[in-house]
Amino acid sequence: MRNIPADLARVKPVSRGIRYTDAEAHACRTIDRKLLSLPRWLDPAFPVARLLPPGKDPVMIPKTMQAAVVTAFGQPLAFQEVPVPIPGPGQILVKTEACGVCHTDLHAANGDWPLKPTPPFIPGHEAIGIVVAMGPGVTIVKAGDRVGVPWLYSACGHCEYCLSAWETDCPTAEFGGYTKNGGFAEYILADPNYVAHIPAGLSPQAAAPLICAGVTTYKGIKETEARPGEWIAISGCGGLGHLAIQYAKAMGLLVVGVDIDEGKLAHAKRLGADLVIDARDPEAVETLLRETGGGCHGVLITAPSLPAFQQGVAMTRRHGIAVLTGLPPGSFPLDIFDLVAKCVTVRGSFVGTRKDMAECLDFAARGKVHADIELQPLTAINDVFARLEHGDVASRVVLEMKGLT
Prior knowledge:
Layout: H1 6-9, H2 22-36, E1 49-50, E2 59-60, E3 64-69, E4 78-83, E5 92-101, H3 103-110, E6 127-134, E7 146-149, E8 152-154, H4 160-163, E9 174-175, E10 187-190, E11 196-197, H5 204-207, H6 213-224, E12 231-235, H7 241-250, E13 254-259, H8 262-270, E14 275-278, H9 284-291, E15 296-301, H10 306-314, E16 316-324, H11 336-341, E17 345-348, H12 354-365, E18 373-377, H13 381-389, E19 396-400
Parallel strand pairs: 12-13, 12-15, 13-14, 15-16, 16-17, 18-19
Antiparallel strand pairs: 1-2, 3-4, 5-6, 5-10, 5-19, 6-7, 7-11, 8-9
Helix pairs in contact: 6-7, 6-12
C-alpha cells in the first residue's frame, strides 16, 4: 500500500448525500489540491473523486475518454479512447458539455494554413464545460464553474501585445484545438487565465458558438470603427455572419447582408438586415454603393472566399475600413489607386481579447444575440466536416458529448 499523508488518511469517504460543514468543505478542497499536487496518486491504479462545492455530488474522473482525433491531414477524424489529461500547476480540467464546430477546425484537420498543427491532435476551440479538477496555484476559477475553452488558449502575459491588451497577437500564444488539444473530447485541459466565464442563463449549447464566432465578429465590428447610424456590410451571412448581423444591429448600425445563398440572405433579413445583396449579381457593388449613398463605413468580411475579399473592399466607403476575419488559403489583389485615392483602410482582425469575450457574452446573456445552432453528437463530426466543405451548414453546428461512454 502507498504511504498516505496523515491528513489524507483521516478523510471520511465522499458519497452521495453527505452534507459538509464549512470547515469540512474547506478541508476537502485542501485535500483535493494535495491530491493534484501528487501526480503519482493519479496513475491507473488510483482513481480519484474530484470534489465540487458543498451540496453538490463529487465527480469521479475516469482514466480514459473518447475523442475525435486528427491522425493525418485530409483524413477522416478517428474516434479513439485516450487518457484523460491530468492538470498540472496552473491548469484546470474541464468536463466538456458541448463544443461548436468552426471552419477553422476543418482548416486544421486539412492542414490548410502555413503554420500547421502537428498530428495527432484533437480539434475544437468552442468547448463549454464544467471545471472538475484544478492543479496547484489555481485561484481564478473554482470547481463547478462553467467555462469556455476558446481559440486563444494562452499567451505569455508580458510581451508588448499582452501588456497593451492585444493578447491575441502574442508571438508565443497557444491555440485551442490547434497547438493544444481541443474540445472534440470528453475532457479538456485549459489555462484558467484565458477561459471564458459563461454567464448564468446561457446553456452550454447556446454559448459554444459565441466563444469563437461571436467574439470574432463582435471584435471585427469594433475594428471597423463604424458608429451608430452608419452603414456596415457583413459579407457572409452564415455561421459568423448571422451573429455579426445581430451584434451590429444591437450596436445601432445599419446593416447590409451580402451572400451568395438566397436562404442565408432571407435569414439575414429576418435577423434585421436593412438591405441584402446577392454577391453573385454582377451589379452587386454598384447596387450597394447606390443604396448606401457611397458605400459602407465599415465592411466585415467573414466569408472564407477570396472573391468575397475583393468585393468587400470595393464596397467600402471613402475613409472607410474593411476588416478581414475569414481565413481562406491564398492571397488576393488590391486596387492600389482606389485604395490610396479613397483613403480606404484594410485590416485583419483575429478573434478577440478576454475583454471582448466578456462583452460579447454579455450581449447574449441580455438576449440581444443568439446563435442559430444545429445539435449533433460528436460521432457525427466527419459528416459535419463534409457538409462544411460543401457550404451545407446554415449557421453553426454544436457537438454534444452524450452517449459516448
